[in-house]
């Protein structure tokens, strides 16, 4: 499997002396669905920003979709993002007063495609998230769960190699949250590579792989469903076997924080 994300020795220090990430090594392969979990302040959003090339590390190497991020200018990075990465945020970030269809078409703004093609692809993407019948609705006419589906359609309309979501269920009731997660799982099952931050352990436990951060370091990287559900490759099915731990890092790596 091709590597979509490759981080090695990634450290991020913010002004003011905060070390948000410490020597993080993380590979994400094509088609993986990875949950990024950990307490508030453990560095999850920082990690997602670096994977999404919205921010650069203080030190360490970042490779996204085969590109060495350090070798690219800021301008080249925005092109890389537009072509290869889709983002979903807790607060949806839809454009108010604009139809669902046009919000989704926005995801193709820098694609160079003509407007009619953008709108046609947007309609297809809305169909994929089950909202074909809401294309003309504006954000304030949609429920929270529907808004997040629109945001996901916008994120995937350009067929990005990588879909990144930061607490996509954080503003939703549990039923809508579960259905948004199901949608992300469907996208994962159909070959998209997805990394999703969640503080909801119930949601996280259902993901095929979980990377746990503590004090900016990877404390645990576990593949296999803890609920005994069948993972994508059939491993970890309810046979009572413990989930496989890979790249496991001693838990004291965050010492000193
Ligand atoms: P999480 O998403 O897990 O809650 P964050 O990545 O947002 O964690 O933050 C990790 C640490 O970095 C926290 O201590 C936070 O206060 C700090 N931090 C995050 N963003 C900034 C910033 N722009 N400037 C300074 N410190 C920041
Ligand atoms: Mg965060």
From TrEMBL:
GO terms for molecular function: ATP binding. Residues 228-244 have a biased composition (Low complexity). Residues 223-257 are annotated as: Disordered. The keyword Nucleotide-binding applies. InterPro entries: AAA+_ATPase, ABC_transporter-like_ATP-bd, ABC_transporter-like_CS, ABC_transpr_LolD-like, MacB-like_ATP-bd, P-loop_NTPase. Keywords: ATP-binding, Nucleotide-binding, Transport. PROSITE patterns: ABC_TRANSPORTER_1 (PS00211), ABC_TRANSPORTER_2 (PS50893). Residues 5-240 form the ABC transporter domain. Gene3D superfamilies: P-loop containing nucleotide triphosphate hydrolases. This is ABC transporter ATP-binding protein. It comes from Streptomyces albiaxialis. The lineage of its organism: Bacteria, Bacillati, Actinomycetota, Actinomycetes, Kitasatosporales.
């Amino acid at each position: 499997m091709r590597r979509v994300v490759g981080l090695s020795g990634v450290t991020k220090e913010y002004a003011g002396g905060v070390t948000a990430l410490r020597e993080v090594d993380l590979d994400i392969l094509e088609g993986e669905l990875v949950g990024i979990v950990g307490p508030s302040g453990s560095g999850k959003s920082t990690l997602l920003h670096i994977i999404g090339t919205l921010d650069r590390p203080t030190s360490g190497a970042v490779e996204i979709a085969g590109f060495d991020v350090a070798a690219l200018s800021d301008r080249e990075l925005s092109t890389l993002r537009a072509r290869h990465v889709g983002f979903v945020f807790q607060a949806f970030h839809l454009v108010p007063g604009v139809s669902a269809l046009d919000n989704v078409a926005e995801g193709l703004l820098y694609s160079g495609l003509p407007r009619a093609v953008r709108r046609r692809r947007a309609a297809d993407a809305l169909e994929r998230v089950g909202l074909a019948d809401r294309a003309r609705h504006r954000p304030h006419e949609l429920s929270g769960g529907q808004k997040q589906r629109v945001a996901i359609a916008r994120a995937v309309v350009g067929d990005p190699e990588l879909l990144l979501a930061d607490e996509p269920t954080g503003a939703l009731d549990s039923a809508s949250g579960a259905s948004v997660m199901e949608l992300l799982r469907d996208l994962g099952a159909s070959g998209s590579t997805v990394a999703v931050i969640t503080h909801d352990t119930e949601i996280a436990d259902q993901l095929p792989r979980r990377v746990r951060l503590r004090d900016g370091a990877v404390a645990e990287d576990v593949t296999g469903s803890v609920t005994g559900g069948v993972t994508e490759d059939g491993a970890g099915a309810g046979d009572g076997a413990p989930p496989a731990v890979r790249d496991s890092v001693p838990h004291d790596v965050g010492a000193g924080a």
